[in-house]
Amino acid sequence: MPKTASICCAQPASVVLDPNGRIVLINEDIDTAEQMDRILACLQGLDSWRPRGSLGAHPPVLVLPNAMDTDICTRLIERWHEPVPLYEGDGKQSIGINIEKGGVKVRNDAYGNVTQYILRDPELRQ
Question: Where are the domains of the chain?
Answer without folding.
Answer: 14-49, 70-125
